[in-house]
Design a protein that fits this description.
Number of strands: 11
Order of helices and strands: HHEHEHEEEHEEEHEHHHHEHHEHH
CATH superfamily of the largest domain: P-loop containing nucleotide triphosphate hydrolases
CATH topology of the largest domain: Rossmann fold
Shape: globular
Largest sheet: 5 strands, parallel
Distance between the termini: 37 Å
Structural class: alpha/beta
Strand content: 15-25%
Number of helices: 14
Number of domains: 2
Radius of gyration: 21 Å
CATH architecture of the largest domain: 3-Layer(aba) Sandwich
Amino acid sequence: MSQHGLQDKFHRLVEEVNNAVIGQQRVIQQLNIALLAEGHVLLQGLPGLAKTRAVSCMAQRLDSDLNRIQFTPDMLPSDVTGSEIYHSHTQSLTFQQGPVFSQLLLADEINRAPAKVQAALLEAMAEGQVTVVGKTYQLPELFMVLATQNPVEQEGTYPLPEAQLDRFMMRIEVEYPDKAAELSMLGMLRNEANSDGSLITPILSVSDVLNARKAVNEVTVSEAVDQYIVDLVHATRDASMLDQQLANWIFVGASPRASIALDKCARAHAWLNQRHYVLPEDVRAVAYPVLGHRLALSFEASGDRITSKDVVGRLLDVVAWV
């Protein structure tokens, strides 16, 4: 299939999921970019904003497996990875795969899982494999974790450590839809309730996604754009590149993994816009979801009610594109 044909399929995917998840166009677009960039996603938002629905609708149109884990404080690592089961009739142990063995994994309310369970997911996200009793098992070639969390509720939660947050290529902020979108939502859900429940025809196959990823990897990046990416990330760690107020807001800057994520996501954004080269606009378009969760803000920023979104926006103003 030609690149234009693949690009058309991805645009259709976005369009159909937007029709099923009204008022979250930005979220769906960023999920599409993460899929192309081979990254894991943290969806952050209050309850009832269709985070789970967005993931489910995307999986239905991807012709892929989707497993869901509802995280709770009493979970064990084996509830994610699987465990060895003893069979008395054969007196042998066999490995029973856990829900992590899926092409798409929806990790609902990931911050409700205790630290050991979160750590069990870390190897899978980083290496594409799990190790149980000294044996390593490979995950599917298309493996993507889509985790959700409520940023407000703190009771019974285990905040993700910075090392785990950094494994997510993007953190997507899911916000309330506007009034018009919410009104359209009511009619859409009534129609769904009255429909015959016919099956949804997938738009993309797994091979389509893998071929598109190869095409994204071939998108070229100039030395000037590479320098811009590095300047943006390095500025979060070098106060001399920032004004005094912005420098005071950042307690810990982004790691080099942020530069890699910016590069991959910018290339995916360029490819979706039918270009074989990256522009600074592509980098700026993905800067918020890539950098926001990788910055630790200072107490001064908290006192001024400054968010990571404010900091990234100011960073884009301060760091010049040459």
